[in-house]
Amino acid sequence: MLHRIFGLETEYGLLIHEDRPDHSPTWFAHQIRHHLFQVQRRGVLDLHHRGHDEPPGNGGFLTNGGRIYLDMGHLEYASPECHSLTDVVASDRAGDLLLQRTIEDLGLSDHVSLIKNNIDHETDATFGSHENYLVSRRFPFSRRGLAPFVTFLVTRQIFTGAGRIGAAGPQDAWIQMDRLIVPRAAAGARGDSKLPFQISQRSDYIVNDFFEWVQHNRAIVNTRDEPLADPNEYRRIHLLLGDFHMAEYRTGVKLGVAGLVLQLIEEGHAPQDLEIDEPVEALQEISQDQERSWVIRLQSQRTMSALDIQERFLDCALRHCKGQDEETDWVLAQWASVLNDLRGDYQKLVGRVDWASKLWLLECFREAEGLDWGDSLLKSLDLEYHNLNPSKGLYAGLVEEGRVPRMTTDALIQIAMDEAPKNTRAYGRSALVRHLLGGWSPSNADQGAKPDGLFPAYVINWSIFQVRGRAPFPMPDPFRTYRDEVRTHLEPAIV
Questions:
Q1: Distances in Å between the alpha carbon of 147 and those of 124, 151, 321, 457?
Q2: Are 171 and 327 in contact (CB under 8 A)?
């Protein structure tokens, strides 16, 4: 893609198969983190406080340049910075495989399953799939400038949704009214937990169009200004409204299409007459529309379908972006293909769009067993679609049947588990992590975080690091590898 850095953050669920008070999901998460860093030595643990909820040892950076840590008790994986869609998809799948193999190495596969989805049907808790896109500081980051992006994000779920049975319960579903955030039930808004099926898992939990918080007031566009790069040059667009994808092909298309829309906005080519009247309500209405007509109201009081809106964005992208590079042309072709197929039988999308794959599997099982949509067994199958254990996951069954197109390969994913992309600063960070692994043991990392009482042996952040006895080393440009500079900075070896 044209001069873009991508990144993904994945919050994993852990499904416990036995009722033991001493073996909670958090307990398993701690065991997995310990084994990953202390036994497998896939990376180095943080030795400093990253925040009030991240003490030393809570997580750390990996040899692939990404990071694994505990966030409010659950496992989270942040991919390294990636400059291509292939790299970001491979890095995302690498995180899945790292954690799944750790569970297998610990002999815990019969006790716990790693789930890559956005909801817990029992508690209505939600897990985040966060997208990151680097843009220029000159990007029009305002309500007016972002209006086309909001319209695009609200409507893209017709091909990016992961699908779910039911809806968020009223006690956990909130909406904005007159600048106040109130329970959906108190506002008389729709929150039907008996809804048969909707196309998005995350839409029920989005309550604002713009906001900086990431919990309880989740927005279509997060406004926190945390570029993790030179703030004079860059801004990071941080999104938390999206669904997880089991289909790696869909992950690549989702990120690629969003990157092209951001380019259209940057260059002043995005359509300007498609502002949605009530974006949050429209987000939920599209997801819950059982007829899948997906018609919403615009600020002009016109009505328009989400599919027609997406085709307007596609037409703009074809006019202004086609031919700029091979990856862009692939994204445009896949975007056009999925929009065309959305006008027909949804079953044409099985293997390519997660909500369609899941709906087809559930419909087949429901009809074979004579079940209604409220049956608890269907909710269990909904969850099992996202199980990363290849012997248990329903999505894995589609892969075995050859119904799923691949965007990467097993060999590339294996490489991405250990190696950072070679064209971003993750490459330099990887060199640092390998250096520390070569001269630092897990035991003295735990026991000697601050042997001099003043400064830990090392501090690593996304855009800067410091090793004790040396000056801080900033890495403000995500497009630079810093590989040689890091090696020079670290010589001679730590003593």
A1: 30, 6, 20, 46
A2: no
464 forms beta bridges with 474
Picking from 492, 495, 432, 436, the residue whose alpha carbon sits closest to that of residue 463 is 432
d(C-alpha 252, C-alpha 392), whole Å: 25
Q: Please give the Cα distance from 323 to 330 (Å, whole number).
A: 10
Task: Map residue 485 onto helix, strand or coil.
Answer: helix
| Segment 330-344, tens digit of pLDDT | 999 999 999 999 999
C-beta separation of 136 from 235 below 8 A? yes
Instruction: With CA atoms as reference, report the closest residue to 150 among 313, 10, 302.
Output: 313
Beta bridge partners of 102: none
What's the burial of 379, exposed, middle or buried (CB within 10 Å: 0-12/13-18/19+)? Answer: middle
Q: How far apart are CA 373 and CA 367, in angstroms?
A: 10
In the numeric block, which tokens belong to residue 303? 């009505």
Q: What is the pLDDT of residues 237-268, one digit of tens each?
A: 999 999 999 999 999 999 999 999 999 999 99
Residues 6+ apart with CB under 8 A from 169: 124, 191, 193
Query: Which residues contact residue 179 at a Cβ distance below 8 angstroms, ignoring those fewer than 6 apart?
Result: none
Q: Which amino acid is at 351?
A: G
CA dihedral 126, 97, 112, 354 (to 10 degrees): 50
CA-nearest of 3, 236, 79, 261 to 153 is 261
Going across the sheet that includes 458-460, the strands are 458-460, 464-467, 473-474
Helices (H), 290-375: 306-321, 326-341, 354-369
Q: For this structure, is 71 an active site residue?
A: yes
- Strands 180-183 and 43-45: what pairing? unpaired
Helix (H) or strand (E) holding 238: strand 234-242
Which helix (H) or strand (E) is 460 found in, with range?
strand 458-460
Q: Please count the other Cβ atoms lying within 10 Å of the Cβ belonging to residue 416.
A: 29
What whole-number distance in Å separates Cα of residue 65 and Cα of residue 79? Answer: 7
Give the Cα separation of 217 and 441 in Å (integer).
41
3-state secondary structure 110-158: CCEEEECCCECCCCCCECCEEEEEEEECCCCCCHHHHHHHHHHHHHCHH
Residue 179 and residue 196: Cα distance in Å, rounded? 31
Structure tokens at 480: 């630079």
| DSSP-based three-state secondary structure for 446 | helix
Catalytic residue of the set 22, 46, 71, 87 = 71
What is the pLDDT confidence band of residue 425, given thresholds at 50, 70 and 90?
A: very high
